[in-house]
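Working notes for the structural subgroup meeting. M.R. asked for a predicted model of this chain before we commit to crystallization trials. I am recording the input and output together here so anyone reviewing the notebook later can reproduce the run.

Input as submitted:
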Amino acid sequence: MNIMTDINIHSVLDHLNDGLCLLDSERKIIFWNRAAETISGFSSSEVTGNHNTQSIITHVTSDGVLLANETCLLTKTYNDGAERESEAYIRHKDGRHIYVHSRIFPLWSKDRLGIVGIGEVFTDRRPLHRGTEPVSICTRECCESILQAKLDTLNKTGIAFGLFLVAIDQIEGNTDTLGANSEAGNDEILEMLRQRIVKAIRGNDKIGLWGTYILMVITNNVEDSNIRMIGERLFKVVCVKEVSVNSVSFTPTVSVGATVANIGDTVTTIIKRADRAMNQSLTSGGNRISII
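Returned structure, recorded in C-alpha cell form:
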C-alpha cells in the first residue's frame, strides 16, 4: 500500500501552524487552511472562489510600500516560477491588520511543464500565545525601566529595537469638535487609539503612556531596514477608521516619531531622538511619521 495515494492531503494541510492559501491559474482561491482561518478570521467558505486576495493579504516592501499591479509578487511568481518572500498584512475580518511573513511559490503541473497555480504560506508574526495574554500598558517610569533593560541587552548582544512616540494631532482643535466635554473626549480618543495599537503589536512589544496625549511603543527586533514599515503599520491601524466621541464621529490623526536604538545610546538620548522626530511630524502639519 502506498500511503501517499491513500491520505487526504487536505487534512494534512489543515494541521499546519502556518496559514496556507492556494490559487489557481486565474488567481482564484481554491484552498484556505484552518490556520489561515484562525489568523485572518475568514472561514474557508468565505474566501474560496475569491479572485481578489489583495483585499485580505497585502504585500509590502521593507519600507512599507504596497506591492500591487505590475509589482504584485503573485503575478511575478506565476510568470517566472521563482519563489519569493515578503512582509505582509493580513486584513482580519474584524478590521485590524496583522503582520505576517509571506512565502510565495509556484504550483507546477505533474510533468513540471507549466505552472498551474500559486501557493502562499503566511506565518503570524505575533506570539503563538496570541489572545491568551494581554499586552500590558506601562507607566512612564515603567517605560524608562524597559528602555534601560533593552539598551543593556543591545550593548551586550547587538539586538536592536525600535522606539515610537505617537501624539494625537490637534488636541486644542478638538475643543470645537467635541464641545464642553473635550477633555474627557480626548481621553476617550487616546484610549481608543491605545486599544487599536494593542491589537496590532506583538505580545512581547510594549506600549505605555508617555505624556498627556502621547503613547510610547517599544518594538523588538527592529532595524533601519524595517522601522518605516512597522511605523506605517502602526500609523495605518490607528488612523484607519472613524471614532465616535460625544456623539461626534471623525477620523483621528497622529504624529509619529520613530528611531532605532544604537549601541551606546542612553535612555535620554534615544527618547530625545524619538521626541525630535515626533515634533518634526507635528510641525510639518501632523498626520505623518518621521524617522531619525
